[in-house]
Please model this.
Amino acid sequence: MALSAAPARTRVDPDPRVRRLKAIFRDEGLPPALVWIAEVESAFDPDARSRAGAVGLFQLMPDTARRFGLRTWPRDERRKMEPAARAAARYLRHLHARFGSWPLAIAAYNAGEQTVRRALRGRERATFEAIAPGLPRETRSYVPRVLNLMADREGLDVVSL
Model:
């Protein structure tokens, strides 16, 4: 399913960083609204670092960053807006291809592919709502937070995802 905009609520982003991030996601074949993941992950702080070792706007873990083309040494490219956005977009595209929906892809972005795969095992329906009880508490709140932020910032219909 696609993310669809409700034109009446859509606005132009005043922040040039958001406009640039959206252009990168568009170039990578993703819905531009997914850039709001960076607000949830890091409040758009390129120097953000988690206790688990995730770094940058999109809070990429070292292995994921390298898997999607970033260097983590000697200079950590996860802190650079454009390379990190391209890597995050490629990762999200991979997750969407694997799980078939944006809510599941967003859940996997937060909890990891294996966690979502395990939660899907034995389920008749492959939806976020169906597997939410089997996901970590953080992910159960993370996905709605991202979707609600996208709806608020972009005027998107996230119910149809």
Observations:
- The chain has a mean pLDDT of 92.
